[in-house]
Write a structure and sequence with these properties.
Oligomer: single chain
Strand content: under 5%
Structural class: mainly alpha
Shape: globular
Order of helices and strands: HHHHHHHHHHHHHHHHH
Radius of gyration: 23 Å
Largest sheet: none
Number of domains: 2
Number of strands: 0
Low-confidence stretches: none
Number of helices: 17
Mean pLDDT: 85
Length: 496
């Protein structure tokens, strides 16, 4: 097996393991969202969305980006094969997540009245914010446990922790919403976070870590790099959360909480269901890219390989969404939410630009370029906010889909030229061909959906879906040898 083929197979293998869990999580999320949409309606989803987005904002301010920055430190320690070094880094991380989690809870409690006024225009939700403040501690400790599993490449434990947490969360929260309706929103948020903590704690404790004693001074010394990079990541994440928060408040003030619910539902489809593919890939991609961060050549090869796989997996799914989005919305939510179909059409095209830019942007983390990472994110968030506000003001929810697409096109151009100048990065010819082909198919599907009446748009769309899936299969077979893998499996079965 050639080295490139081995690399491609590693990407597919890890994506398959964690991606399989993501599929189950998607099913769980679909069931949960369906129940919530039917039981609570747009208004209830709007309330839940504002509460969760506020928590995310506070969390982004207080978590110091440890869920991302610490992966690099744990992976680097693990690469040394020094058990004591690994144990020291993990102990430092666990101390930090407790401190930052308590900090987030404290800040939320102190600002609870103000947060209620900012989010809902009154103090009616002050007590709700006080109650859900504890979830910031739960989530931060959970992140610390999952970072350990990811950094040590315990992908199966990581996958199980996510899967079991989501499944039990569904089983417990759905009855809550059924019996208590809107009153179940706050308990549902708390219970979900607590369950995730329990499973992450359980599986992280299955990994044997040497016992070490470290002083507070040593903790501070060891945590400097983790916190420096994490602080920049936290600021960048905070800006993104701030942009999303401002947009939700803008929508709420202009059109009401129900419109916020529609906005949340629309982008949940794009960022949660489709975006889970990125989550599955990043689980292995970031540590792998960080391992070759010293070499621009190896970074270029790794990024191109990841970008190719991302487009080949993502594009056919996006075209399915373009053709059948109305029915997907009804299945996932209800007919009350079909108003977001125009937004998702535009956003689906933008996801292809996001896939390419996402693959490149990880190099800034792998290189440890914290200041450059922050400046890059600052510029992107400034024009993203402007595009979102303008898009919604003139074209409503559809305008947000248009702004999503334009924003990620600009971001792709931005990170491409930044990394080209700084790290001599460029896309290789195979990626350019793959992207051009799949984007052309997606654009053709978009045009047919917008211009043709049914059933003609469905006929053309189904043809384009088949072509896209066939093309992805053909390109993946060249890279990982799908046929040979299938034949080997059959031979093993025949021998057994």
């Amino acid at each position: 097996m050639s080295k490139p083929q081995s690399s491609y197979r590693q990407i597919i293998k890890t994506t398959s393991i964690f991606g399989g869990v993501q599929v189950f999580q998607i099913i769980i999320q679909i069931i949960r969202s369906k129940f919530i949409a039917v039981i609570l309606g747009p208004e209830g989803m709007g309330i839940a969305g504002l509460l969760n987005s506020t928590l995310e904002l506070i969390g982004g301010l207080t978590n110091f980006g440890l869920q991302t920055s610490a992966v690099k430190d744990v992976s680097a320690a693990n690469a040394t094969e020094n058990e004591e070094r690994v144990a020291i880094i993990i102990k430092v991380l666990r101390r930090l997540v407790w401190f930052t989690g308590v900090l987030g809870t404290f800040v939320t409690i102190v600002l609870s009245s103000w947060l209620s006024k900012l989010s809902f225009g009154n103090t009616d939700y002050t007590l709700a914010f006080i109650w859900i403040s504890m979830t910031l501690l739960f989530k931060q400790v959970t992140s610390g446990q999952l970072v350990v599993l990811q950094g040590l490449h315990k992908i199966q434990y990581l996958a199980k922790a996510n899967l079991y947490g989501s499944l039990l969360g569904l089983i417990i929260t759905v009855p809550l919403y059924y019996y208590f309706v809107i009153d179940a929103i706050v308990p549902g948020i708390i219970v979900t976070a607590l369950i995730s903590l329990v499973f992450s704690w359980y599986f992280s404790r299955k990994v044997k870590i040497s016992r070490v004693k470290i002083t507070n001074v040593r903790t501070i010394t060891e945590s400097k790099n983790m916190l420096t990079m994490g602080f920049m990541i936290s600021l960048s994440g905070l800006m993104a959360l701030g942009v999303a928060y401002i947009v939700r408040i803008f929508i709420s003030n202009k059109s009401g909480v129900s419109e916020v619910g529609l906005y949340n539902a629309g982008f949940a489809i794009i960022n949660t269901y489709v975006g889970l593919i990125f989550t599955a890939m990043a689980t292995d991609y970031y540590p792998r890219l960080a391992a070759v961060g010293h070499s621009n050549k190896l970074c270029k090869e790794t990024i191109n390989q990841q970008a190719e796989i991302a487009i080949l997996i993502l594009a056919p799914l996006l075209i399915v969404f373009l053709v059948f989005i109305k029915w997907i919305i009804i299945i996932l939510y209800s007919i009350k939410f079909v108003a977001v179909d125009g937004m998702i059409h535009w956003a689906a095209l933008g996801m292809l630009f996001k896939a390419a830019s996402w693959s490149i942007a990880f190099i800034l983390l792998a290189k440890g370029a914290s200041k450059l990472f922050f400046i890059n994110a600052l510029i992107a968030n400034i024009y993203t906010l402007g595009l979102n506000m303008t898009g919604y003001y003139y074209w409503g929810l559809t305008g947000l889909g248009i702004s999503f697409m334009i924003g990620y096109l600009l971001y792709l151009i931005q990170v491409f030229f930044l990394t080209k100048i700084k790290y001599y990065f460029k896309f290789n010819t195979p990626f350019v061909k793959i992207f051009a082909m799949q984007f052309a198919l997606a654009l053709s599907c978009f045009i047919s959906v917008k211009l043709l009446d049914k059933p003609y748009s469905y006929i053309i769309g189904i043809i384009l879906i088949i072509v896209s899936f066939w093309y992805s299969y053909w390109e993946l077979d060249k890279r990982i040898g799908i046929k040979s893998i299938v034949l080997n499996i059959q031979r093993r079965k025949n021998k057994s």
